[in-house]
Design brief:
The chain has 288 residues and is α+β, with helices and mostly antiparallel strands. Helices cover 41% and strands 18% of the residues. The protein has a 6-stranded antiparallel sheet with strand order 2-9-4-7-10-11, covered by helices on one side. The radius of gyration is 20 Å and the shape is globular.
Length: 288
Amino acid sequence: MHPVFQKIEANINLSFYVEQVKIPYFTNPLQFHPDIEIMLILEGTGTLFVGDSISSFGPGDLVMIGQNVPHVWYSDKKYTIENNGLYSEVIFILFKTEIFGEQFWQLPESKSILKLFQLSRRGLKLTGETLSQVSLLMKSITSSVGFNRITHLLSILEIITSQKEYRFLASPIVQNIINESDSDRLNKVYTYVIHNFQEEISLDKAASIAYLSKPAFCRYFKKRTNKTFIQLLNEIRISNACRLLAEGDSTVAEICYIIGYTNESYFIRQFKRITGFTPLSYKKIQIE
């Protein structure tokens, strides 16, 4: 991938960045930064790219993303429509490992946190009791002041480290090769797919958005993302199918057509290939 480098500066009187924001929809481009990011979604739905992974997000999701990992949050298309009454709300923490000082990392007690930082380069989605406990701390850290901010952050890291209730988002190897001339090309392609996956998606259209011929685009896309354009489209559609199945309001056949497929058998094959489950098995797991 070719993300945009983002330099994030904390307030000169604070050692790291914490904010609760309410916005119409996510607007940041594909990016990476030297800060570790912890994000709690309060309101809003969409698609999250971390490294080579694609997943849906919604209220209650809590993700930790390591240093210099390419990532981007895309809101669902309905959030970008004017006067829709919808909004997205998040709490996020951004911090550099340097805030604790070099000697801190020499302590035996800190080694497990360093290991967590390494694991977070794959992106971590918190689950179970860890999700509940860290969510509460995320909500309270926004109003904490003084040294309490530091103790809150350390508590969050200690809970994640000790309980180990999370799942990885990206594969173990996430390469970040920077090329400024390509900084917005993938963003345009991703935005096109995110906003149109429910319709018939054209490879020719995607190639034209990237200002490339179709053969050149296919080579470019595979080299940059380690997957074909069709794989990307299927993963976005299936991630949205997972969310619809979890909500439990639609049948498998209805979801097939809602997310842009015209053949139910093909949809089921793609779902099982990507998730390891049939749609019905996945739905049963979510209900249980």
